[in-house]
Every structure is written in C-alpha cells, then in structure tokens.
UniProtKB/TrEMBL annotation:
Species this protein is from: Spirosoma taeanense
Protein name: CS1 type fimbrial major subunit
Residues annotated as signal peptide: 1-29
Keywords tagged on the record: Signal
Amino acid sequence: MVFQPTLNVQRLAIASLLMMGLGTIPAFAQSSGTSTMNVKLSDVLELKINTANVDIEFATPADYNNGVTKPVPNQLTVTSNRPYDLKIKTSGSDLVNGQNLIPVSNISAQTTGTGLGTQSVVSALSTTDQTLATAVPPSMSKQISMQFSTAAGNSAFLKPSGDYTTTLTFTATAN
C-alpha cells in the first residue's frame, strides 16, 4: 500500500517548512546612527551711520531765546550678538567756521526710544568718549534715534552767521 498524504497533511508540511526558515521573507530592518552638529558663532558688532549730517539751525529769535532741539530719527543702525555700550565724542573741542569758534560743550546729546539699555544724557559734548547708553541688548539692525539740544539763551551762539562744524564719532563697544 502506498501512502498518499491528504490535503491537510500537505498544508501542515508546507507550514512547518516555512516556520523552519525555508522560503521565509526577511523582515524590514532599521538601523540608526548619530552625528554631531556644530553651530559656530562669531562675535559681530557693526555700527552704521544712516544720517551723516546733523544740522542744528538757529533761524529765528525764538531759536536763540529758547534753544534748539534737533531730533535725528534712525541716525544709527547697530547689529550685535552681545550687549554693548554706545558712546559719542567730537573731533575737536569747538565747532569751527573760519576764525569763529563755538565750544562743542554747548550742545547736549542723547538717544531716544526704547530697548536701549540704560540711557544717559550727554549734557556737554567733548573730545572724550561719553556714554549715551549702556548694556544695550543684542539685536539685528537696531535703529537708534538721536536728539541734539542747545540751552535757552546761550550766548555762545551769538556769532556771525555761517556753518560751524565738527565731526561726531559714535562708538559701540561689546560688553
């Protein structure tokens, strides 16, 4: 007598072979690794002058009697990744028009606006760096407005008409 397997026995034999690894389909594997990312920052501090000329004009008797205040919107732009101090000085001790002189100490300067750290009024410009603001927070392209003023009734401005000039130097120093 010849043994003839039944259909169920055939299925059982095929399933056993599959379970033993013959003809199995490989499972999808996963592998991972790590990489280091470095972000390298360099200190950056840039000061740009947006308004090159500051014109303080005495045009009327009221200007001489009351003094003149000259706002200069967005005169400076500073980009810094660290807090910084902002200072101002003049190139000479006088505003000059030929032989005529007006001491720069007759003009005050200050920053205006918010977000400028601790602001100070420079009551008398000079050839020495004077602090306009300290601990100004880091920022990208921070617009800084300035204001220049003269005192009321200041006889130092009773000079012949003309343009009296000096050079202003602004300095930003990182903390």
